[in-house]
Design a protein that fits this description.
This protein is α/β, with parallel strands linked by helices and 229 residues long. The protein folds into 2 domains: 1-100, Quinone Oxidoreductase, Chain A, domain 1 (Alpha-Beta Complex); 105-226, Rossmann fold (3-Layer(aba) Sandwich), CATH 3.40.50. 29% of the residues lie in helices and 17% in strands. It has 8 helices and 8 strands; from the N terminus they run E-E-H-H-E-H-H-E-H-E-H-E-H-E-H-E. The chain has a 5-stranded parallel β-sheet with strand order 6-5-4-7-8, with helices on both faces. Strand 5 (147-152), helix 6 (155-163) and strand 6 (168-171) form a beta-alpha-beta unit. It is elongated, with a radius of gyration of 19 Å. Bound molecules: zinc ion (ZN). Zinc ion is lined by residues 45-49, 51-52, 60-62. The site of zinc ion has 10 residues, from helix 1.
Length: 229
């Protein structure tokens, strides 16, 4: 079972996108029983602090991330605190592999596109970075009937975006000014743009390609050399 050591302290067990079957429950758990099929959000919460009560569990006073702040799911078992609050029931028709993608990349992208981005049909959305979270954002944006511009330097990733809803793709290696290309496509800039990569270049281009009153959502973590103090 996991403990509270974080990623900076070895030994550590990674694994933050997980789903599975409840094996055992703690004494205070009332909503779940052995055999239930579940997944969990990447940023798990306490459920009782003011942030949790306001629906912002990602900034819970007692947040934790299996695989980062706690031992994760690259193991036979993983323990999840505050299980009544954090476990999410899986319908039979959702398989475990699909379910494992929901708690981090899809949940994050949904909030970025639908809640923070508040997109409306036919608006323009630019997504910088077409990895797990960027591809999820494109699928979600497509579901909201917005027009998507995908930006990456990997042609294979860009090809994939076309099959999941991107209307335009930009290989950033082929242009000196990605922002100009986005203005050429959209006329007045993007309504919503997001850095789904976490780089200074993607972040600044994402802000610069916005139209007046457009909105930038920073999804990628600006860490290491890309840390902005
Ligand atoms: Zn909380």
């Amino acid at each position: 079972m996991g403990n509270d050591s974080d990623i900076t302290n070895l030994p550590h067990v990674p694994g933050h996108e997980l789903s599975g079957i409840v094996q055992e429950t703690g004494k205070s758990v009332t909503r779940w029983k052995s055999g239930d099929r579940i997944t969990v959000p990447f940023v798990s919460r306490c459920g009782t602090c003011p942030e949790c009560i306001s629906g912002n569990h990602q900034i819970s006073d007692h947040q934790f991330q299996p695989g980062f702040s706690n031992w994760g799911s690259f193991a036979q078992y993983v323990s999840i605190k505050y299980a009544d609050t954090n476990l999410i029931c899986l319908p039979e028709e959702v398989d475990f592999v699909t379910a494992a993608s929901l708690g981090c990349r899809f949940e994050t992208s949904f909030r970025a596109v639908a809640a923070q981005g508040a997109v409306k049909p036919v608006q323009w959305v630019a997504v910088y970075g077409c990895g797990g979270v960027g591809l999820s954002a494109i699928m979600i944006a497509h579901a909201f009937a917005v027009r998507v511009i995908a930006v990456d330097i990997n042609e294979k990733a860009l090809d994939l975006t076309k099959s999941i809803g991107a209307n335009f793709t930009i290989n950033a290696k082929e242009y000196t000014d990605v922002v100009e290309v986005i203005f050429d496509i959209t006329g007045r800039g993007a309504h919503l743009s997001m850095d789904a990569l976490g780089s200074v270049t993607a972040c600044s281009n994402s802000i610069l390609c916005l139209r007046k009153q457009g909105r930038h959502v920073q999804v990628g973590l600006l860490a290491g050399d890309n840390f902005l103090p």
